[in-house]
Amino acid sequence: MAMVRAAVIAGFDDQVRLLQADPEEILRANGFTSGFSSACDTDEWLPYDRAEQLLQAAADATHCPHFAALLGTQQNINLLGVVGDLMLQSSDVGTALLELVDHLLLHINGPVNSALVSFGDQTFLSYHGPSQTLLRKQSDELAMAHSIIIMQALCGLDWKPTRVCFCHEAPDNQKPYQKLFKAPVFFGQERTEIVFPKHWLKAPIL
Predict the structure, then answer these.
(1) Which residues have CB under 8 Å from 74's CB, separation 6+?
(2) How far apart are the C-alpha atoms of 203 and 47, rounded to whole Å?
(3) pLDDT for 141-191, tens place per residue?
């Protein structure tokens, strides 16, 4: 069974409340104890599929299909724990991203794959999680939101991707995604990934 650190749901309660829903009700309905998301140890392991189910339940309760992406953009690189520490101690952005790829299993324990490749003047940071269900939409959107906040932590808040790609089909309303990611967003793609100019790999960590 794939597991993920509880840090991925940091800020869950506040985000649900901002969207005019009750986080305690959502938690209890999905088998979590009251106050779990705000009181749990961020290094505690959660079943990956239960985290996806919780995100989907929140999306349904708040009538916000992009809830996971929204939650992820409100978090920061500290959610990665020791992996984030390794990245911030790197000499440049490229080295930091290789630390992420090489040590992702410290954050997600399961059949997960992340890759960093460059073609021409663009670099592709992809993510393939362990989920094989329709709930993969939630974890993929959370992962891409995390990719954005990680890159901004390394490069500065002005950093923007060239584009963001998802394997899952396009939602009815794509505008919230373009607003969150501040870049063109494409759905139904071969890989879930962010794309950005290659020159950032040599940039020093800010």
Answers:
(1) 11, 14, 15
(2) 36
(3) 999 999 999 999 999 999 999 999 999 999 999 999 999 999 999 999 999
